[in-house]
Amino acid sequence: MSIDDKLRSGRPSTARTHENVEKIREIIKEDRRRTIEEIVELYPFVFLRNMIMGFGLPILIQDQSLTMGTVVKFLYGVPTNSSVYLDSVFNRERRSVSKTSRWDIYSMLEAACSRLGLDGRACVLRAICEAADTTLQHNGLAGEVLHVLLTPSTTTEARRTYMDSEYYAAERLGTEISGNCHLLYSECEVGLLDFISKVEY
After folding, report:
1. What PANTHER family does UniProt report for this protein, alphabetically (predicted)?
2. What is the mean pLDDT of residues 78-92?
């Protein structure tokens, strides 16, 4: 049977398709090139595509005309059914990726402040209060990021513990009692925002 006859033979049965999938996996494992006959056997209803490229240079020779060139021909067998490739991609199990929540970031900031000898919890609460008191939104990209980070009400994440409600309270106090965040959280001697900018009242 010629290649053209095999191409015209139609689609394989489901059992034949599964058998072909196994053959494909074996060939991929062996990491070898496939011949046209193998492609037609694996994909009985394959579209063959040709790509021909050429390059020519005229060569000047006295009283003669000569062109030197080369032609490269590629023959691709393109399957009509891509489910063979998609099955292995979509059937993979999703890896569980641990997501860092806003509360985790606040805990990390608290730990960093504690290592500096400050009251970590009070310093983070003071920073949230000061960020609510003086807007950081119009200070470029860094200001936008700090605004989102230090505004607990912008999150949809559930609170981990009851203690996380203090972050919301600090934000509310910053909007209601202007200029007194340093007095409300006096346990923190240095405001975190003072490392980046100066908050003036």
Report:
1. AGAP004005-PA, AGAP007094-PA
2. 59
Euclidean distance between CA atoms 166 and 4, whole angstroms: 75
For residue 10, pLDDT beyond 50: no
User: Which residue type, as a one-letter code, is found at position 139?
Assistant: N
User: Taking the CA atoms of the chain, what radius of gyration do you get in angstroms?
Assistant: 34
Mean model confidence pLDDT for the chain: 73
Which residues lie closer than 8 Å to 98 by C-beta, 6 or more apart?
A: none
SS3 category, 55: strand
Between 98 and 153, the more confident residue is: 153
Paired tokens of 127: 């920073």
- pTM for the whole thing? 0.49
pLDDT digit string, tens, across residues 25-49: 676 666 556 665 665 565 555 566 7
- Give the type of residue at 103: W
The residue that leads in pLDDT, 87 or 70, is 70
Vertex 139: Cα angle to 120 and 146 (nearest 5): 30
Where are the domains positioned within the chain? 3-86, 102-195
Question: In a 3-state reduction of DSSP, which class is residue 46?
Answer: strand
Q: What is the DSSP string of 138-179?
A: TSHHHHHHHHHHT-GGG--PPPSSGGGHHHHHHHHHHHHSTT
- For residue 125, how many other CB atoms are within 10 A of its CB? 25
Nearest to 3 by CA among 50, 53, 39, 49: 39
Give the pair of three-digit tokens for residue 74: 């590629």
